[in-house]
Model the fold of this input.
Amino acid sequence: MSDRPAAGEAPWLSAAACKVADRILESHLRAFGRPLLAGCGPQRDARQAAQELFAAPTVVLAHDGAADPRLIYANRAALLLWRRTWDTMVGLPSRLTAEPVARQERAAALEQARLREALQGYAGIRIDSGGRRFRIENARLWTLRDGLRDGLGSPCGQAAVFGRWWWL
Done:
């Protein structure tokens, strides 16, 4: 199966995106002891789970584990909030989701989540593609792990989910 979606297929259903969605769901379960999506247990169909994660009403984002992490996933709620398409959001340096003055605070929260494996109750200021500011509240941040089904898995990025936000 190719990493690129078939002609006319949604990019979040490509093999690579389905793998990231699975990693997000598995890592969330490990970090918080509960599924991110109701009904998305270990026996779920990968493509169906990827579609459900993309369609979830809460914002879900993930970035890779690079020194300057880039987004590897954004669901529909995230794309709408940041006013971006999949192609302009996925691959974006994740620091650009926050305005310059909020980036140090954001980096500190991500480091805390990395050290603890997970963090609940995070709040911060973000900025959409047009420069409009918004505040997020009660976000969960967690470490993404590759290979969880085979053991502990290796850290390979971080993810976040939140449902509360408002424009400033």
In short: The mean pLDDT is 91. The two ends are 43 Å apart (CA to CA).
